[in-house]
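Lecture 7, part 2: worked example. A protein chain together with zinc ion.
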Amino acid sequence: MYDVVEESARESTYECLQCGKIVERTTHPGACSCGGSFQNRAMSLE
Ligand SMILES: [Zn+2]
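Predicted complex, written out as structure tokens:
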């Protein structure tokens, strides 16, 4: 019943592709304040 706990509560590191800002969020941060878009760094490390 509670098997939805996998990645939902885990923070991922996102890096802005434009300014290089690093943020840690449990969900995708969307657009950066500089107007760039964030990429999940964990994906490229795997
Ligand atoms: Zn940025």
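Residues 12-45 form one domain. The CA atoms of residues 9 and 26 lie 6 Å apart. Keep this in mind for problem set question 3.
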